[in-house]
Specification:
single chain, alpha+beta, Helix Hairpins, D-amino Acid Aminotransferase, Chain A, domain 1, OB fold (Dihydrolipoamide Acetyltransferase, E2P), 5 domains, 5-stranded mixed beta sheet, 5-stranded antiparallel beta sheet, 22 strands, 38% helix, binds adenosine monophosphate, binds zinc ion
Length: 663
């Protein structure tokens, strides 16, 4: 292969990876890599794009936080992202460029970069009208109800004009730890970091649940404003405070590079003394007039940059390695470390992923290891320090037998993952049941990690069908289980029989079949038998299903245990047929997008209507879009659509006409 091909292959791979992390971060609020790793990934993509002269579309949009079907409101002024500097040198480079452009060293306003979730508040005639998330930067999700639960957000202000006020919703480090402790106790998944906890909370449907999350807010910027109440960024902050908004006092107006450096360094060292997490310093041109002159790139203001703190690294000692068996039987090695305090919390464990990782790190018992935790996320061993190793220390070896059922372990074809092949291995059973009952699976509330482990221990459950065979008397006999909660759980279990087929398919835990794949399969094949009978070629023909997934589906159905599992569940009355809510196919093969509010129809109802008639909803305006449906107060999508020939701009009446049945 030519060099260029190699680089191109890398670019394509990294873009895919980034998409996956975007989804995890922005939409599922559940990232699996640190912000730092993400930034490095984005940077490498940019570098490759520059070298290859590829278009850089993939980087020029702000990450999305819009959930499908949510009510959205267009911003009056776009909400941008921020460019990052990863060292003081980079920051100084930015300031030099800025000085050149401005013709002088501009006055700067430095602020904490709170690691929270961006919000936009709109006030008119002194009253809060609505609150949204950043969304895609052009329009955000309506979170007014939830935002009102946050203490300190004024319902009314003295200022009587029209104004967008921007800031951050966040959770203090202490509240974050407490929420995660509670979640662990309730058998719920913990949040990776405070930012994600805040992001997840602001979109919750249940308001009383939101107030339990102890959200706080800090405001720091204006969007659209008429009249504009300040001339400089520092005045904006004072003005916000005078209007009663929560504002950080820790900002500083700087006039020299030395002042900038000292502020950044001093906060980098003190960051963990704050009650909440900050991941950097935002450096902004102070004068609003000069900001306006400098303008924006496609993604961020040219008059501001975020200086990002370095992830903390610390030395620890590898005490032992534990091997854990997961739901699919995959065995994951986990390092037990001498506890060290790093980035705001104590770390005593780190995942080692797989056998290759252990080899790559060349780990020996008792090794001194360098660990990193970039601000918030999962700790990771960067490397071992062989120069500090004792002469007779043993290398870590991967186990050959399952630590729970003692079956011989097998290795995946590509060598990266090791499995316990025993389908009835108790370690897998627990995880498989947890997955089955989980919120994204069959959503059986009350049936979480700890109850399942007690049920397995008490020999009440040996398989998934056993869940449906339990009665409330058996359940009520467990310690700490009242009659009422036993009844509730049994009711939840019975109700889950009606869950949609795609959820059941996901809950079965077929390897590589995630929620989305399950939905696609359910829609494509309609029922479990058709999926079972589908051959490899047919499966491969389904959108988004590659050879790896097709292989795994076939492997699942060629296993007799799995077939009898399905038979049992059928007998117990679970729903293995996809309910299609198709009303007609009058919109078949056509794609739609909605902007503005449609009379008498919420955004999600309108989208559902289009889907029910066979139409497809697009994520954004592009050449692939056939129709833009425009309601009142359309957003920027309309301007974008007008620039692309071929997109038809229609109103609700015209949409109903297309559907063919005026409703
Ligand atoms: P990023 O999402 O990494 O591009 O960072 C930009 C985000 O940082 C903004 O959208 C804000 O939500 C957030 N942020 C936190 N503190 C500040 C601040 N003081 N000024 C501007 N943005 C901030
Ligand atoms: Zn096992």
């Amino acid at each position: 292969m030519m060099d260029r091909d190699l680089l191109l292959a890398e670019l394509i791979k990294l873009r895919k990876e980034k998409e996956r992390h975007d989804l995890l971060y922005y939409e599922l609020a559940n990232p699996i890599i640190s912000d730092y790793e993400y930034d490095m990934l984005a940077r490498r993509i940019k570098e490759l794009e520059r070298t290859l002269g590829e278009d850089s579309n993939s980087l020029e949009t702000v990450g999305k936080d819009l959930s499908p079907g949510a009510k959205v409101i267009p911003h009056k002024q776009r909400m941008y992202s921020l460019d990052n500097a990863y060292s003081l040198d980079e920051l100084i480079g930015f300031l030099n460029k800025l000085s050149l452009e401005a013709g002088r060293f501009p006055e700067l306003c430095l602020e904490h970069k709170i690691d929270g979730f961006g919000i936009n508040l709109f006030y008119e005639n002194g009253q809060l009208q609505y609150a949204t998330t950043r969304g895609d930067g052009f329009e955000g999700e309506d979170v007014t109800r939830n935002l009102k639960t946050i203490p300190g957000i004024p319902q009314s202000i003295l200022y009587q004009g029209s104004i967008e006020i921007r800031g951050e919703v966040y959770i203090s480090s202490e509240d974050f730890l407490q929420i995660n402790t509670e979640r662990t106790e309730n058998g719920e998944k913990t949040f990776a970091n405070p930012r994600n906890a805040a992001a997840g909370s602001i979109k919750l449907k249940d308001r009383s649940e939101v107030s339990k999350r102890r959200l706080q807010a800090s405001l720091y910027a204006l969007g659209f404003a008429n009249p504009v109440p300040a001339q400089t960024q520092s005045d904006v902050l004072s003005w916000l405070k005078s209007q009663g908004f929560p504002v950080s006092d820790q900002f500083l107006v700087c006039r020299t590079i030395a002042e900038v450096e000292s502020y950044c360094q001093s906060w980098e060292n003190q960051r963990y003394s704050l009650p909440f997490e900050i991941d950097g310093i935002v450096v902004k041109v102070n004068e609003l007039e000069l900001q306006k002159q400098l303008g924006y790139t496609n993604k961020s203001p040219k008059w501001a940059i975020a200086y990002k703190f370095k992830p903390q690294e610390k030395l620890s000692e590898l005490l032992s390695v534990e091997f854990q068996v997961g739901r699919t039987g995959a065995v994951t090695p986990v390092a037990n470390l001498r506890p060290v305090y790093i980035s705001g919390s104590t770390v005593s464990r780190a995942t080692l992923h797989n056998e290759d990782e252990i080899a790559r790190l060349d780990l020996h018992y008792g090794d001194t290891v360098l660990i990193v935790k970039s601000g918030e996320i999962i700790p990771k061993i960067l490397r071992s320090l062989p120069e500090k190793r004792l002469p007779n220390s043993e290398p870590i070896r991967f186990i050959e037998h399952c630590p729970v059922c003692e079956s011989s372990l097998t290795k995946e074809k590509d060598g990266s993952v090791t499995y316990c092949p025993n389908a009835s291995c108790p370690a897998q059973l627990q995880k498989r049941l947890e997955h089955f009952a989980s919120r994204d699976g069959m959503d059986i509330s009350g049936l979480g990690e700890s109850l399942l482990s007690r049920l397995i221990e008490q020999d009440l459950i040996h398989s998934i069908p056993d869940i449906y065979r339990m009665n409330s008397d058996e359940l009520a006999k467990l310690d700490r289980m009242g009659e009422k909660s036993a009844n509730n759980i049994i009711n939840a279990i019975q109700a889950s029989k009606q869950q949609n087929f795609d959820r059941l398919l996901f809950a079965l835990g077929i390897r590589f079949v995630g929620e989305k794949t399950a939905r696609v399969l359910a829609e494509q094949y309609g029922n479990i038998d058709a999926i079972n009978q589908a051959d490899f070629e047919s499966l491969r023909g389904v959108p988004d299903i590659g050879p790896r997934i097709a292989d795994s589906i076939q492997a699942f159905f060629s296993n007799d245990d799995n077939l009898s599992l399905i038979d049992d569940l059928k007998t117990l009355g679970l729903n293995f047929v996809h309910r299609k809510e198709q009303l007609s196919n009058s919109l078949e093969g056509r794609s739609f997008l909605i902007t503005g509010s449609l009379q008498g129809l919420s955004r999600s109802d309108a989208e559902a209507l289009i889907r029910k008639h066979g139409g497809k909803i697009m994520g954004s305006v592009s050449k692939q879009l056939d129709y833009l449906v425009v309601g009142e107060k359309p957003g920027s999508k309309l301007d974008k659509a007008r620039k692309i020939p071929g997109i038809q701009v229609i109103d609700l009446e015209a949409l109903k006409h297309l559907i063919g049945s005026p409703q």
